[in-house]
Amino acid sequence: MTKDPASSILVRHFRQRLLWPLQLTSLDAMANKQHWQLLEQDKNKKWQRINNAFSVSAGEFSENIYKEFVVFLPYVQRFIYGESRGRHTHGLDDPPGDSALKIFRRHDVKKIRVVLRAGDAPILLTVDHIELCFFDDIDIVFLNIEVTADNLSLTTARDLLYRFGRAYPTGWNDAGQGVHNTLDCELLAEDGTVLAQSDSGNREKFLAFACEHRAPCTSSHWNYLLQPLVLNASDNPGDIRYDQIEYHRMPLMAYLAVDEPLNIMRQEWLRLGLVATLHPDEPLPLNDAQIIDFDNLYCYDRYWAGSEAGPNTRFLCSGRAFIVVGDAQESYFLNNERGIQAQFRHQYFIMFLISHFHRAALLIFSDRLVDAIHDLDMRNPKSVRKFRQRIHANFEEFLRFTHRYWFDELSERPHMQALHHMCAKHLGNVALYAEVKDELHDMSQYLDSDAQRRQSTTVVRLTVVTTFSLIGTVATGFLGMNIISEADAPVWLRWSYFALTVIGASVLTFVTVMKSKQLYDFLDVLSEGRSFKNRVAMLWPARKNRRT
Asked: What is the pLDDT of residue 547?
């Protein structure tokens, strides 16, 4: 067997972040709470709210947060950190808004032990943090996991990137082991106690769940991490329920500090850049357009000199994966306070989070529109009213998303903006936004035209009622000519005449309204430019067809 050239390249420091977007089911309007507020009230207290980085004193404020803050444009700063404060910034009736991003963190899982394939030695990953990221006004939560390891071969690091971060197995091999995912994954406490373990080999569980619920089942260790959030399709009790937005592969970020990055061959760059979609054991599709134009499509080489003098930091971005590779001997690349590693954990993470937040929110809007159309029954007035309410609610939420969260420019820094555009382009965010906007516009136009149609019908019917009311008007006017003089009649008799007139006029009005469509057709036939005989002859067939 030919030796893998990547096995001789050592990754001195490996850092991976998973960013899994999940759709939260809408809460009852009567609850008047946000999902993150329900999580704060959880009795188990596994998750603790992380205070805003700006809530500390000036002496405790981190330079990392400052550098992260100033790299973004003002509207991004308001979104991530909240509105600016100052005595003259806001009026008394306009208090400054807080950050739209609410973060919760758990501290019980300290290590993750992973076995990639049968016969492989386990890999022990150190957990940096596990977080849940909520957003105001949008039913989305991101599971954010950051893990680290040292001294891995490039082959192992690449396989870990490909296999770690699968919500469930997509199939099983002859030995009953899940394919594409890790063979085994254990969540460990500080003392080494196993808190949860993956069950990808439990084929019957996944098949039975999919058959019963028509939805994929999440692996047990991910279920444990998300608690008290529960899968919406499951029968488990829970107030905060979620659905998957896309497929089982979680978007990932990776930081690789390697010895001598100049020795990485082109085929290894290809496999790293396409790690989210290309199986490590699959031969490279050399005739594929993505492979042929790989450098232009997926590589950002502003800081890649390709020489011993350096710098030799390369960014790979395919949308679903964002990978930074650099020289482990370069101090600036390793610097966790001011260098590339610090930027990876702060600025680049925010950029990646925003890109995937945009995509996830747009997919949710599209899914809700499809569901609204699916539930629409034009023959059922109640269904039509519910459809109208859902479309108006979605349109309102989309406007709020557009003006609060949607933006094309993140930063004036050229490299940040270039990487953001690269990520958004591969995710198809701009095209998806235009598609959802057009769908909402079409449905809004339909509702407007339907309202105009109903208004026109009402006007026609009122016109018919007015026309036939002329008969009553003339009759009452005729009675007012004192043909019947009852001025000296007893009071009860005059009240009787009055009551009979009111009842007769009311019955005539209600009958005219109920039969306004038929009466309109009757008037339409009478008004046609034909002889009187032909007009009378057309009335009977018209009425007969209406009865049929």
From this structure: 47
